[in-house]
Design goal:
- The chain has 258 residues and is an all-alpha fold.
- It has a single domain, classed as Up-down Bundle (Heme Oxygenase, Chain A), CATH 1.20.910.
- It contains 11 helices and no strands.
- α1 packs parallel to α11 (212-241), α3 runs antiparallel to α4 and α7 runs antiparallel to α11 (212-241).
- The longest helix has 30 residues, at 212-241.
- The model is unreliable at 1-8 (pLDDT under 50).
Amino acid sequence: MNAPMTVPDDAPVDVPDSRAAFEARLRAVGADRYHDKHPFHARLHGGQCTMAEVQAWVINRWYYQSRIPMKDAALMSRLEDPALRRIWRSRLEDHDGGLEAGGGIRRWLRLAEGVGLDPAYVASGRGVLPATRFAVDAYVHFVREAPLVAAMASSLTELFAPAIHERRIAGLLEHYAFANPETLAYFRQRLNEAPKDVAFTLAWVLDNARSRADQDAAVAALTFKTEVLWAQLDALWHAYVAGNIPPGAWRPGDGGRG
């Protein structure tokens, strides 16, 4: 019988992946887990959603959109390097806009108005599903508290976003009367903004996740973020497709214009 294999005492136990292999691990998270594969998106992009389902999606996705700049502000508060803060600051400008105009949040509210909702009602957050609120708040908390490499890596779902935005624009234009350049401006603008953000963040994570533990934490953080996105759609489906709307959440006819 062969003797059991022994491991030398000086064998490395924390060997990081190569840069290419680490990037491949990150990209594999999106290939396996990104929410473009959720059945609600197939329903939305294929024109099968009722207007009530579209409105519910707009209301609940608003909560996520409204917390993105808060997440980025929390991350910036942790950055000691002013050069890094200057780079990250553009994300706040992209979402919040200027004092009078611009920004993804304002563009999302134009979509809300286009689907027949009162933008002030949507912005109040009163109709958001409890599960949406819990998932999004957990993401903001994670970015505020997690090690910096993991906090940064959690935003890398932007790697996979352009493809879903393109499919969404095409599907909404084909199937829904509310879809036009003004109501879909949020998605078109993100096609311009996201590439610069993801190029910087991906390079930063690849450069700064120097140990295998750092790399594993980055992959776990990105996995967590895909679960945050997936959980929101699970809640939306359960409430508005399956018809199990919880107390306090928006109901069709609330917050509309007529």
